[in-house]
Design brief:
By secondary structure, the protein is of the alpha+beta class. Helix content is 38%, strand content 14%. The protein has 3 domains: 14-78, no CATH class; 82-169, Orthogonal Bundle (Recoverin, domain 1), CATH 1.10.238; 173-249, SHC Adaptor Protein (2-Layer Sandwich), CATH 3.30.505. It starts with 13 loop residues before the first helix and ends in a 20-residue tail after the last helix.
């Protein structure tokens, strides 16, 4: 183990170091108060530096601690919300990809007192699972990146008491096509004047796409402070449905012309 601190300048021989470490039982200083140097790492270093070899942790124990610490730091890097960090570390320690059925079981357990409004099959599967990631067993799974994206859009859906009816009910709407790229939404809208759809955006939470007659247009929809914001409108909206109604009033498309969710390259089922 080493630190970025230089040894004293009068250390010129191996004997100087032996006296410093073995006889005087001194150790190099460890940086404190640095967000890049966790206290857990300081603790395991100090335990490995104990003067009594029998009091030091075994290599197996030290390796396990460092691996767990590395995973915790990775989770905190990918998940910016402290609540989502705690949820993942508690239920999926050491795992970066979670098999979908197992994730769903955990969600059912978390919301066991809220089953009347919790509809995991119809909502969470649509929210998460448009583009499946296959794990080494070939099962459907989700990872830290997707979990963070959904948390940013829908809030703390993994916390008991979350209002699924209020925040996620739109995923059952026929105009919501989920996680499809721009080329797929364009292919679905081509040849369908005045038709529209809503999908996840690449740079914003949502994108409104519609056929303007001569071309397919796209409009980013932001979600800020519990409201939806779209550049063409000088106001905030409380729901995506309100955004669509405002767009229809501007004759951007017809609300009765919802683009079908055709199966294109397996993006939607």
């Amino acid at each position: 183990m080493g630190t970025p601190f230089e040894p004293p300048q009068d250390f010129t021989t191996a004997e100087d170091y032996r006296l410093f470490i073995c006889d005087l039982q001194q150790r190099p200083p460890i940086p404190h108060g640095n967000i890049h140097w966790p206290e857990e790492l300081t603790d395991i270093i100090q335990r490995c530096w104990l003067h009594d070899p029998n009091a030091r942790p075994s290599m197996q124990v030290a390796t396990k601690i460092i691996r767990n610490l590395r995973f915790t730091l990775e989770v905190k890097t990918h998940l910016t919300n402290p609540k989502s960090q705690a949820f993942w570390l508690r239920h999926f320690p050491g795992e970066r990809q979670i098999e979908w059925k197992r994730f769903l079981r955990v969600m059912k357990y978390v919301h066991k007192s809220n089953q009347s409004s919790f509809q995991p099959e119809s909502w969470l599967q649509k929210v998460f699972c448009f583009n499946w990631v296959k794990n080494k067993y070939g099962s459907q799974s989700i990872g830290l990146k997707k979990f963070e994206e959904i948390n940013n859009i829908f809030g703390d859906f993994f916390v008991e008491g979350y209002s699924f009816d209020q925040r996620m009910s739109f995923v059952d709407k026929p105009w919501f096509h989920g996680d499809i790229p721009r080329e797929v939404s364009t292919a679905r809208l081509n040849g369908r004047p005045n038709y529209f759809l809503v999908r996840y955006g690449s740079k914003s939470p949502f994108t409104l796409s519609w056929n303007a007659g001569t071309q397919v247009l796209n409009c980013a929809i932001e979600y800020k402070h519990e409201h939806y914001v779209a550049p063409p409108f000088m106001q905030d909206f409380s729901s995506l449905q309100e955004v669509l109604q405002a767009a229809a009033k501007k004759n951007m498309f017809s609300l009765s012309k919802v683009c079908p969710t055709d199966t294109v390259n397996g993006y939607f089922q």
